[in-house]
Amino acid sequence: MRRLLCSLALVAWSLIASGVCPAADQEPKTLAVVSFGGYQKLVDDVTAVGRLTGNPNLGKQLEMMALMLPQGEGSQGPLAMDPQRPWGLVVLAGDPIPTAYAFLPVADLKPLIRLIEAQSGREIKKEKGVYHIPNDGRTLYATQKGDWAYIADSEKQLDHVAADPAPLLGDLPSRYNLAVRISFPNLPKEYRDQILALLRAGTESGMQQAGQNAEEQTLRLSMARRSAEQLTMLVSDLDDLVLGWNVDPKTKTTYLDLHLTARPGTKLAEQFSEIKLGTTQLSGLAPAGATFSFSSVGKLNDAQAAQTKKSLADLRKSVAEEIGKQGLAPNEVKLVSQLFGDVLTVLEKTVDTKKTDTAVAVTLEPGASSMLAAAVIADGSKLEKSLKQFVEEAKKTSPSEALKLSHETYQNFQLHLISLPTPQQGLATLVGDNLEVVIGIADDRAIMAAGHNAAEQLKKAIDRCKAAKPKQVPPMQLTVSVLSVARLLGEIGETPETKSYAGMIATFLASAGQHDHLTLTTLPASNSVHLRLEAEQGLLKALGSTGQMLTPPPGDAPHDVKQ
User: Domain for residue 270, yes or no?
Assistant: First the structure.
């Protein structure tokens, strides 16, 4: 996902900064549109945010500020603006560089011109109905057409603006406060080639590292080529990209959406169509109060399964070479190699089922942190047999009394416990003096717990998963408790400032009823995939409260100290 987002950022930058010329005989096509939902939508959402942050008059304050702006003749609104209609920006493929024009729902442009003159201290000339606005060595051009005001970076552009620009924004104004849509089919070939060249170069350079042997370098370059192929498909097969932000007063959340739509009939559309809601057997894994929780369910197509097995084969070769470099005794090499080999074999059999169901949960508390990870697997009996053999042999060969190994059965799971002194002081701050790792194996699933009281945590997780019925969930979901992170940093932060600031945030979040979660969710749609990053109301309240504390009240100034 990180590579995908970086790729999209490069694409967006190339749209704005590229100097490549499209063919001169083509009509300029729309590369992107930016949508602002409108003045009234802004007021409504600012009011909603104000209520969440303890400032219910925030929307009224915005309206009072707007009333101070110049008014149009006979108008009751700021700058003669229609509060219900959207604002927009249109980016076109131009010669030699992209061009753009903005439009505003302003029926009378003169008040806006007077405001610009007042702020800039310059007179704005008007020629043949077009205002010439100086702007840092450049000139912008504005004109009135019907009940819309247009601003462009060239006077010629104003001759070709849409008579009714609102349809160019589609449904963006009704869905989001602020949004941008990029149309990939309208990218000229020269733009597309330049973007792909940048992506390939960045991918290959990122895979090259100093000190690698020939086999490691070959493996990394192979990964780079596969990544480049995926990026090429992404740029070639995407239809459009939408990035939008909104506030939802009903759920008391704010969210940022990334929506990717593939052109019908393409390989990317085929991949997107396979991203669907799935049923998990692990919905009870995360305990209440977990700092991080992650779940992923899905199905693999033939190509994805083959690619995954190829990666596992590469990993098998790499692990075998690495084990041989560790200076282990021959019997230890054999033992470790067999365990890793059996683990990879079970993973390959799981890939053959073409189904994935995994979950992870992390709880961060000073001295009592823990992690849980689980997956539905194939041939759990093979993994259990190999792990049991490894533990039994390790008992014989380990001379250290500090290393404790044990085995027990719980709820049809075979549990293997490893306990040893925590190897690093930083880790001891999180989990305590002893580090426990417990692996539980059943016929169709594996669960691992690590950290403080790992055995107890694993047994509770098994009980929760057994009590929870199979549940339909999004293909991917990641949830973070910001309150938990803030509390941890408030106690173990590296500097007094970090501890103080984190403690303040934790106090605000706790007072907000612990609605403190950030959630990233992947949702399926027709020929597309939808990612949403959502923040709960406690985060908005904490942000507003923190801002109020850090901002001095108006007119507040230091007073003289009397001696």
Answer: no
Spatial neighbors of 377 by CB under 8 A, at least 6 apart, are: 346, 347, 349, 350, 383, 444, 445, 446
- Same domain? For 185 and 303 the reply is no
Task: Note whether 185 and 309 are same-domain residues.
Answer: no
Last residue of a domain, one of 146, 173, 189: 189
Q: How many CB atoms are closer than 10 A to CB 46?
A: 19
User: Contact at 8 Å (CB) between 114 and 121?
Assistant: no
Cα separation of the two ends of the chain: 62
SS3 143: strand
Beta-strand pair 130-135/125-127 = antiparallel
Q: Do 56 and 180 belong together in one domain?
A: yes
What SS3 state is found at 220? Answer: helix
Of 549, 501, 545, which Cα lies nearest the Cα of 50? 545
Residue 388 lies in a domain: yes
- The answer to whether residue 6 sits within a structural domain is yes
User: CA 368 to CA 428: how far, in whole Å?
Assistant: 9
33 and 169 co-located in one domain: yes
How many angstroms separate the most distant Cα atoms in the chain?
A: 95
Domain count, the chain: 2
Domain range for residue 183? 2-189
Strands 404-410 and 278-280: unpaired
- 491 part of a folded domain: no
Q: Kind and range of the H or E element at 317?
A: helix 302-324
307 and 173 both lie in a single domain = no
Q: Are residues 8 and 133 in the same domain?
A: yes
Shared-domain flag, residues 183 and 328: no
Q: What's 161's DSSP letter?
A: S
**Residue-wise DSSP of 126-190:** EETTEEEEEETTEEEEEEEETTEEEEESSTGGGGGS-SS-GGGGTTHHHH-SEEEEEESTTS-HH
Using the Cα atoms of residue 41, residue 46, residue 51 and residue 53 in order, give the sign of their dihedral: positive
What does the pLDDT look like over 351-372, one tens digit per residue? 999 999 999 999 998 888 899 9
> Amino acid identity, residue 237?
D
| For residue 18, pLDDT beyond 60 | no
Alpha carbons 501 and 84: distance in angstroms, whole number: 40
Burial class (CB in 10 A: 0-12, 13-18, 19+), 322: exposed
pLDDT for residue 433 is more than 50 = yes
When pLDDT is averaged across residues 498-522 and rounded to a whole number, the result is: 84
**pTM score, whole prediction:** 0.80
SS3 525: strand
Q: Which residue has the tokens 């940022």?
A: 256
Last residue of a domain, one of 473, 490, 505: 473
Tell me the pLDDT band of 258, cut-offs 50, 70 and 90.
Answer: very high
φ, ψ of residue 289 to 5 degrees: the values are: 85, 10
Cα 82 to Cα 304: distance, rounded to the nearest angstrom = 51
Same domain, 303 and 185: no
Calculate helix-pair angle for 537-550, 39-52, nearest 10 degrees: 90
Q: Is the dihedral of CA 371, 375, 377, 381 positive or negative?
A: positive
